[in-house]
Specification:
Length: 302
């Protein structure tokens, strides 16, 4: 396995500065964010370390040259919009940009692009699954043609009571994964697995690894802490009882999780994702969060 981080937490830094930091802190790889240049729609979005809008061979050589210079592998490209949003024009913008990210990955010689399926949180599961079947086959065909794998993250994208119960990402549970992979039986359609999202849903974060081991394209290392006093006071239907944390400061047993990854033969990237508000205050604090998480995971990964 290779230990890295998601570049979204370092938006102030240029691509070269991100890679230089990764080298200095002895990381192996980085997942590079590819949002369209512009204002972020939510926290930890809108970061552009690879601008794919007019990305060509010369751009690919520049990016790969920097990666070679600093001895850092690019684990994949990341872009996480709500593709199934209930607005056809907006959805098309997201799909078109995702295809550009896929094309950039091909030029870079990368095998993975990470994203969300999306979901219209005002509609039920079956409505959203029907939309998924309309929209996603063509995206996966585009990825197949580029020899790029699509890793779907399992975040429910549920941030407020207004989004209850489905959130804004359909692919949040093993039951839905089974249906999706049956509907699109492609070797280029798989998972960017993040155990913290299963802590949130009270799902066993280790058990699915065995069933879906052939679909593990990429792994995010993020933790989550449950405040049981708040949960007992307000119940699971009210937000505020869960807090994203960096690895080692939440409820995940990282030795147990990494051990399970080795059991199923996973040997790919494990990228630290920082969404811990305790470290948001400054760039130096966010760098420190990556160092702390690295020190938790490095003994387990080597």
């Amino acid at each position: 396995m290779q230990l890295g981080f998601v570049s979204a937490i370092l938006p102030e830094l240029s691509l070269e500065e991100v890679l230089a930091f990764a080298k200095a802190e002895q990381f192996d790889c980085v997942e590079l964010m590819c949002w369209p240049v512009g204002k972020a729609e939510r926290k930890y979005a809108g970061v552009t370390h690879v601008d794919v809008e007019k990305f060509g061979p010369a751009d690919a050589e520049r990016v790969n040259g920097l990666a070679r210079q600093y001895g850092i592998t690019i684990s994949g490209l990341g872009y996480y919009p709500n593709i199934l949003v209930d607005n056809a024009a907006e959805s098309k913008l997201y799909i078109d940009h995702l295809k550009k990210v896929i094309d950039a990955a091909k030029l870079l010689g990368l095998s993975v692009v990470n994203t969300f399926i999306g979901r219209d949180h005002t509609k039920n599961l079956e409505h959203n699954f029907a939309r998924f079947q309309e929209v996603w086959p063509a995206i996966i065909k585009h990825a197949e043609a580029a020899s790029v794998k699509i890793g779907i993250e399992n975040c429910p994208m549920l941030f407020s009571n207004d989004e209850w119960p489905g959130g804004k990402n359909l692919a949040s549970s093993p039951a839905i994964w089974r249906r999706m992979f049956e509907a699109i039986p492609s070797e280029h359609f798989g998972l960017n697995y993040d155990p913290s999202h299963f802590i949130l849903q009270f799902i066993d974060y280790v058990k699915p690894l065995k069933e879906f081991k052939h679909k593990l394209f990429h792994v995010h290392a993020k933790d989550l802490k449950i405040d049981h006093d708040k949960l007992n006071d307000h119940g699971a239907l009210v937000q505020g009882w869960n807090t994203p944390k960096i690895p080692g400061l939440g409820d995940i047993s990282w030795p147990k999780f990494i051990s399970a990854l080795t059991d199923v033969g996973y040997d790919g990237p494990v990228c630290i994702e920082v969404e811990d508000d305790a470290f948001r205050g400054s760039l130096e604090a966010r760098k420190r969060s990556l160092r702390i998480a690295r020190n938790v995971l490095r003994p387990l990964i080597g």
